[in-house]
Design goal:
Chain lengths: ~220, ~110
Amino acid sequence: MPGRSQRWGFAPPALWCILVLAAGCSPEVRYRVLSGVFDGVPPPGTPPKERLRHPRSGTIPEPAPPPVPVPGAELAGAEIPEEPEDLRPHYETFAELVAAFPADASGGPDWVEAVRRGLADPLPSIEPGEPLAPFPLNVRLRSAVPGFDVVFPHAAHTYWLRCDNCHQEIFVMRAGANPISMTKIFRGEACGRCHGTVAFAAETGCPRCHVRMAGPAG
Amino acid sequence: MKRNVWRRTGFVSMLTVGLAIPSQATDPVLGDVRMDRLSTTNAIPPVVFPHWKHRTEFRCYACHPEIFEMRAGANAVSMDAISRGEFCGACHDGHTAFAVGFDSCRTCHSGAEQ
């Protein structure tokens, strides 16, 4: 099926022929041909119109007076502030990151300590924005097994996570209201939603959660 | 009609070239998420999402839960959705992070074929 553009495909070459032929003829023929195609072609014999000059282009511009310093002008946005240089640490490969970060008990990177030392400085959002304020609440999860109490540090979590990442879908916001056990954690529930999937795994991190296992001081 | 054929063969050959670039797969890292909802059934290597790389640039709440629900397999990511600026496309636009294109297939489709 020939499309519209195919049926009219001869039009541009034909136009070019008319123009080329017209350019090579006498003024009268050229006028007749061209005025058949375009509007406003001047009849032969009319003197060429004088080009309108830009009114200012004929006069010599007066030299601009030297700028009078306005007090405070250099502060009032005279200079466009440069985009702040990105000084945050970046890592191309995981090997590079492991070499730079402190290691945890499993040999993997310790993200909490790395942030503390400024080895990672992740942005809070894609658009420029301020991070959430730290939330320094420690909640003690009392275990039925003596010596296995857990101290849950909100501060280490709220650096990375927002309240609604955990409350109320994963944890009800009341101390003691969430029955947690190691079985659940190893199954990937409660703390195990993150610990073992993206954050340090329960298998090697006992003393980070179970403060009494950290040493006699805990 | 003619143009359509061109477009289609062009797409297929570029895709072939894109996937011929060897995989940049590395050893698994804690936080890697294998995404294979559509890829293997479409004869494309699966995607391995590296949490570690994104964590050095953004905190968890930059993406969770607005861009990605915080559960593996719960997000209907597709190349169409990405090109609409959803999911990975929210950043991988050539501005915030490298663009999605035929020279970068293997950066994300880095999983081993099965």
